[in-house]
Design goal:
Layout lengths: L2 H8 L3 H7 L4 E4 L6 E4 L11 E3 L4 E2 L6 E2 L3 H8 L3 E7 L3 E8 L2 E6 L6 H10 L3 H5 L3 E8 L17 E9 L8 H11 L6 E6 L3 H14 L4 E5 L8 E4 L1 H13 L6 H17 L4 H27 L5 E8 L2 H13 L3 E4 L3 E3 L2 E9 L1 H11 L5
Parallel strand pairs: 5-13
Antiparallel strand pairs: 1-2, 2-3, 3-4, 6-11, 6-12, 7-8, 7-9, 9-10, 12-13, 14-17, 15-17, 16-17
């Protein structure tokens, strides 16, 4: 790959790119096509940015900042009308066509074999024939999502929801209305557009939306400027904060401290802003406390009984080759997983996967045997 040409397209010097190589920029030759992948944000380039061997660039999807105090954040951040979309609970992908082949990139810039097969199955072929420079940014959700399995969406397998459009070699996105119009024109799902509100009325409207989504077990919202004049913000429900904590405390030694702390702090700010009564605050405290204690106790008791702590997920594939490649993809991502024998299905194979949570297993066993913290 010509690093000088790549550096020029990225807007940095060749020397800077060479210095970043290996430390921040990783080269990948599997699966094809070959690419350079930015592991971290640097020099104004988002993490997850990918440069393919043909010179095309797909920039990383920008990290969305979080509103902690909804009213002040909306007031400070936006200038007029805001659009409110549902925030889906799955894994973020960017889908595009490279030399005629559809590929799905994870947030970190890996080509995921499973997500790629799902994208090829769900998206009409003519999208990239008509728009070869497009990048579809979206969320894959459903119970057969091996990263974040959720049964709250209207699918019994996995589905794709578009939430933004971009173009190759371009950092900007095309905005709310163009994204939803594109989805409608091409018969694909998009994240729900829940309304557009003047910013003075938006916080109360968003509060009511988030409460309703929380009761449904859904994650929350993304707040956007319809004309892309400001970066979007996200805001989540108490229920999803506690659900995240419940999963994390089940595997307590495999998550970073900030994951636990940030979700607990969100609960405090939301309780204060919503001016909860004593009874409402006690209910929140009970929900928060149970999400911390109960799954952790369950993990300790299971380990005490001699069980291995593991997460069970499943995928459905048309090709056994996809399953084999996905197994390798998890391994190169640092995840240990056991794949059961594939079960023939009406339209392919069902593959059950046991994801081993080694750090929590080892730490819990050691503590049970008397090791100190």
């Amino acid at each position: 790959m010509n690093l000088g040409r790549v550096a020029e397209k990225l807007g940095i010097t060749k020397e800077r790119l060479q210095n970043l190589h290996d430390a921040v920029v990783k080269q990948s030759s599997w699966p094809e096509p070959r690419l350079l992948r930015f592991e971290k944000a640097t020099s104004g380039i988002e993490a997850g940015t990918v440069v393919f061997e043909n010179g095309e660039i797909i920039y990383g999807y920008p990290k969305i900042r979080r509103a902690m105090m909804l009213g002040p954040a909306v007031e400070k951040h936006f200038s007029g009308v805001v659009a409110v979309e549902e925030k889906m609970n799955g894994h973020n992908v960017r889908i595009s066509s490279v030399d005629g082949d559809v590929v799905a990139l994870t947030r970190g810039g890996f080509i995921c074999p499973y997500s790629t097969e799902v994208a090829q199955r769900l998206l009409p072929e003519e999208i990239f024939e008509e728009h070869p420079d497009l990048v579809l940014c979206g969320e894959m959700v459903g119970p057969e999502n091996p990263y974040v399995p959720k049964s709250i969406y209207p699918t019994d397998t996995i589905d794709f929801y578009l939430f933004d459009l971009s173009r190759k070699n371009c950092k900007s996105t095309l905005g709310v209305h163009k994204t939803h119009r594109f989805a409608e024109d091409h018969g694909i799902r998009a994240t729900a557009l829940l309304g557009e509100f003047n910013k003075d009325k938006a916080p109360e409207k968003i509060k009511q939306i988030v409460k309703r989504l929380g009761r449904q077990g859904r994650e929350g919202v993304v707040i956007k400027d319809p004309d892309n004049l400001a970066a979007p913000l996200k805001y989540t429900s108490s229920e999803t904060n506690c659900n995240d904590l419940s999963v994390a405390f089940r595997y307590y030694n495999d998550y970073a401290l900030d994951f636990f702390l940030s979700r607990a702090i969100r609960e405090g700010f939301q309780s204060v802003e919503w001016k909860e009564s004593d009874d409402e605050r006690r209910a929140r405290a009970l929900r928060l406390g149970e999400s911390i204690l109960l799954p952790m106790v369950d993990t300790i008791q299971r380990k005490q009984a001699g069980e291995n702590i593991a997460q069970k997920v499943q995928i459905r594939v048309k090709s056994l080759q996809t399953a084999r490649e996905f197994e390798y993809h998890l391994r190169r991502s640092g995840m240990r997983a056991i794949f059961d024998q594939p079960e023939p299905d009406d339209d392919g194979y069902l593959v059950r996967i046991t994801k081993l949570v080694m750090s929590t297993n080892d730490k819990t066993q050691a503590l049970l045997e008397g090791e100190t913290w």
